[in-house]
Amino acid sequence: MLSVVIPCYNEVETIEAVIQAVKATPIPSLEIIIVDDYSTDGTRQLLQDHLAKTVDQVIYHEKNQGKGAALRTGFAVARGDIVIVQDADLEYDPQEYPTMIEPILNNKADVVFGSRFQGGRPHRVVYYWHRVGNGFLTTLSNIFTNINLTDMETCYKAFRREIIQGINICENRFGFEPEITAKVAKLNCRIYEVGISYYGRTYKEGKKIGWRDGFRAIYCILRYNLFA
């Protein structure tokens, strides 16, 4: 079974479509876990009134904590053999789950990163400086982990359940990405990368990550590679 963990914060416009997209994936056995991180735009009410009954589990945080905290909550209750992260927007396509989990199913990988910068799949053209920042953070992470990722900051990451449940996740926000990268590298996990599509959003459309998160990522790369 594949467990899909969906951290959700203020995604009233997309959460229903994301659930439908996940349920339409060709994977035959799915567990869908949504963690609402104290949404204030009507998302929580929509989940409680209509959508909770369409998924396996919805967990409600009583205060906003961040993406990393929501993932920590979701990972802890996952029951599938493989666990994958799915953002609650429409930037990533669940139809690509088979591509993501194939190296694990073939017993070649323990962790799979979905790279937005590999392969010939569609990639929405959005912010130039985001791409520069992503490249810098990925390179800096690679220097310390000694693995050659092309997209450390990607949302799409799939794990063997015993791997992700055995890691103590400390970061509450977007620092989750460099933290988990450092920690799976230290475990000497078999890490694969596969090309995925990317339908990025603008800030007007609801994108949340900002420049402060970039500085936090630098701190996390140094902390979790050198001192943790």
From TrEMBL:
The domain of life is: Bacteria
> Which CDD domains does the record match to this protein?
DPM_DPG-synthase_like
Q: Any idea where the Glycosyltransferase 2-like domain is?
A: 3-165
State one Pfam family annotation: Glycos_transf_2
Q: Which residues form a coiled coil?
A: none
Q: What is this protein called?
A: Glycosyltransferase family 2 protein
